[in-house]
Amino acid sequence: NAGVTQTPKFQVLKTGQSMTLQCAQDMNHEYMSWYRQDPGMGLRLIHYSVGAGITDQGEVPNGYNVSRSTTEDFPLRLLSAAPSQTSVYFCASSKGQGGRPNTEAFFGQGTRLTVV
Amino acid sequence: GQQVMQIPQYQHVQEGEDFTTYCNSSTTLSNIQWYKQRPGGHPVFLIQLVKSGEVKKQKRLTFQFGEAKKNSSLHITATQTTDVGTYFCAGITSGTYKYIFGTGTRLKVLA
Predict the structure, then answer these.
(1) SS3 sequence of B85-109
(2) Category of B97 on φ-ψ map: left (φ > 0), alpha (ψ -120 to 50) or beta
(3) Quick check: B6 contacting A, CB < 8 Å?
(4) In this model, does residue B2 exceed pLDDT 90?
């Protein structure tokens, strides 16, 4: 089982560039989410999805877009990269019950993004 | 909005000493989960607590969920160098779909 796959592992962007971080899971999980991790800040929720076609904002959504056209994929788009978006990004998925996660979250390996 | 704080932020212990991290939420939680992240790695699930006052044990690790379901703790007995990492709690508030992580406690174990 692949679990949760994130690509790329590393990325350097110039300010103003856009890009998409890919996330795919093969466990048929309803709930998927994106977090960013900065030193001393823990994991902060960017966006989440309770199923295909349904997404919502997390704690720090500004500057990011998501879509969920299939159960498997949940890409994160940076619209116009800024140095403040330099971070490690994690995608996670879990089973849901009524749309709410009720089991462990499986995390991808992370994407280390630097914006210069 | 929902906030989940953990204390302490950092903890250095001698190998063999005990360690405790505390998790406090501003809102009542439906459940709480604990994760461990090794340096350079991704968070890995440890356990989930659902019931008020619940206590669960995994070998040297003891997890508690508070009676009011707003706080939790993780206690490690006789730490080992393999316990090094950052421990996170995570919870979801009743009526929401946002799974919020705590700020984490970074544990260093000195041999």
Answers:
(1) EEEEEEEEECCCCCEEECCCEEEEE
(2) alpha
(3) yes
(4) no
Tell me if A42 and B92 make a contact (CB, 8 A cut-off).
no
Nearest to A71, CA basis, from A21, A20, A23, A30: A30
A contact test, residue of B42, B51, B87 with most A CBs within 10 A: B42
Contact B97 A50 (CB under 8 A): yes
B1 pLDDT tier (thresholds 50, 70, 90): low
Distance CA A75, CA A7 (A): 10
Each residue's pLDDT, cut to its tens digit, for chain A (116 residues) gives 679 999 999 999 999 999 999 999 999 999 999 999 998 778 999 999 999 999 999 999 999 999 999 999 999 999 999 999 999 999 999 987 766 677 899 999 999 999 99
- Interface mutation target, options A23, A55, A100, chain B, most CBs of B under 10 Å: A100
The answer to whether B9 contacts chain A (CB < 8 Å) is yes
- Of A43, A45, A102, Cβ closest to residue B98: A45
CB A84 within 8 A of CB A19: no
* Contact state of A45 with B99 under an 8 Å Cβ cutoff: yes
